Amino acid sequence: MATEQRIRSSRRATFKNIIRLLPAVVIIAATLNSISCSNNGLLPHSGGGGSPTATATTGTGALAFVTNFNDGKVSSFKRNTTTGVLKRTGEVTAGAKKGPKGVVADPTGSFLYIANNSDGNIYQFSINSTKGTLTPLSPAFVSNGIASGPDELAINPAGTFLWVTGAKNGTVTTYTVDSGTGQLTQNGKVIGLVNPFGITADSSGSFVYVADNGAGLVYSYSIGAGGTLSQIGSAVFDLGSPGGTPGFIAIDPAGTYIYVTDLGAGVLSVIQTTAGALAFGSIVPSTTTGNLPVGVGYAAVTGVADFVFTANQGNSTMWSFQVPAPGFPASPVEFGIGDLNAPTGLVVDPQTAFLYTTNQNAGTVSQFSLSSTCFASSATPCFVGSVAVESSGSSSGPFGITLAQ
After folding, report:
1. Is the dihedral of CA 302, 303, 305, 307 positive or negative?
2. pLDDT digit string (tens) for 256-285?
3. Where exactly are the structural domains of the chain?
4. Any residues with CB less than 8 A from the CB of 251 and at least 6 apart, and which?
5. Where does 2-404 sit in CATH, by number?
6. Parallel, antiparallel, or unpaired for β 121-127 and 111-116?
7. Nearest partner of 49 among 271, 258, 263, 193, judged by Cα
8. Helices 2-21 + 23-36 axis angle, to 10
9. What does the alpha-carbon distance between residue 167 and residue 195 come to, in Å, rounded to a whole number?
């Protein structure tokens, strides 16, 4: 009971701070609340949302997978690594409808894991190495806990540990991964958070970062034996002070900065890391917006510069931030080309040649080229084309996306 009272008190304090510190957020939150009431998978301003930002693959990214929130499925694709074109190869059920969100593959591209926010399970599949088609493991899922609301997933570079945010019960759960069978076994839990959403592991396999949307905080954890997590230092407010709604996280290749989308304020937060310890840096742009940046990715574009990209669900655009390598980004360039329609998930391929976004309201994945020619002519990626995530039409509600193999 004391814990529940603290959570309710934290939520009330967060709401008051939003009103006092960020007046524009009140309008944004009201808009998001009305969207979420339609139960179509678009992110609400508190609870139930998730990070579609995928853990990067260390291979060529010859396969792609997309979670379809509305109809409870996951679609598989082959990816031409030269042209970037996706070809759909199938779709399978991944639990309850209005549920599949986070998706991640193990580093070998042998297994895929889906978090279903609705039924509380983590679904586990083996991946066909040729077509990317999926076969459920036996058992087909593990429970993350009753009413836990598993939302987003992260896996370490060795593929031995997987972590899941429980948006509904304020947890981050650790699983060990059997390298032979792909089966998950629960092995520890962080408790006491409010609404943990975005999560990512650094490329060294040393740290895990978590965005607590309900508390306005970003946490850092060290990875111990069995994948258990221990907090490093103090959590930091993603806006530098209370009132934020941190969403989803990207890390620069050096692991010295993390970039966090703030759903309510509509900005990108820059946080510095030193041996895993966090220090607030800045927000970009410096004023609130209604863009609702969701998915976020980092790309070192060959022959051009480093960039951070965001998928702006609120106004069906994207942002392109040029970044010193590494460092604080310049003001974003906004673009809205192609069939962007409530873009949500975002991933950059291992060659940093292409960028992909899921479009919740169009039922598609959009593909953009990151060639130097594009940036020379427009300072933004070039729209190449799009592919439907299912044959049944635009109502699937594609959410998360990841690459494998």
Report:
1. negative
2. 999 999 999 999 999 999 999 999 999 999
3. 2-404
4. 200, 202, 203, 209, 257, 258, 259, 298
5. 2.130.10.10
6. antiparallel
7. 263
8. 120
9. 5
Rounded to an integer, what distance in angstroms lies between the CA atom of residue 331 and that of residue 161?
Answer: 36
CA 291 to each of CA 162, 201, 263, 338: distance values in angstroms, whole numbers, following the listed order:
31, 26, 8, 17
Among all chains, which residue has been given the structure tokens 């396969």?
A: 63
Distance, CA of 73 to chain centre? 18
State the Cα angle at 195 between 192 and 197, rounded to 5°: 120
Q: How far from each other are the two terminal CA atoms of the chain, in whole angstroms?
A: 46
Distance (Å, whole) CA 2 – CA 100: 32
- Helical segments of 121-273, H only: none
In 204-265, at which residue ranges do the beta strands (DSSP E only) sit? 207-212, 217-223, 229-231, 236-237, 246-251, 257-262
DSSP state of 226: G
Which of 313, 335, 350 is closest to 380 using CA atoms?
Answer: 335
Q: Report the chain's C-alpha Rg in angstroms.
A: 19
Q: How far apart are CA 259 and CA 230, in angstroms?
A: 21
**Largest interatomic CA distance in the chain:** 59
State how far the Cα of 282 lies from the Cα of 139, in Å rounded to an integer: 45
Token digits for 94?
């991944």
Q: Which of 197, 260, 262 is nearest to 24 (CA)?
A: 262
* Bridge partners, residue 273, by sequence: 278
Place of tokens 């814990």: 3
Residue 234's closest CA among 216, 220, 254, 215?
220
Residues 169-204, buried b or exposed e (16+ Cβ, 10 A)? bbbbbbbbbeeeebbbeeebbbeebbbbbbbbbbbe
Handedness of CA 146, 148, 152, 158 (dihedral sign): negative
Q: What is the pLDDT of residues 159-218, one digit of tens each?
A: 999 999 999 999 999 999 999 999 999 999 999 999 999 999 999 999 999 999 999 999
- Residues in the chain predicted with pLDDT less than 50, given as ranges, are 1-40, 42-52
Q: Which two tokens stand for residue 55?
A: 């853990």
Pair 65, 75: CB distance under 8 Å:
yes
- Rounded CA-CA distance 16/38 in Å is 26
Residue 166 tokens, joined = 């429980």
- Alpha carbons 173 and 188: distance in angstroms, whole number: 6
Residue whose C-alpha is closest to residue 328's, from 313, 345, 308: 308
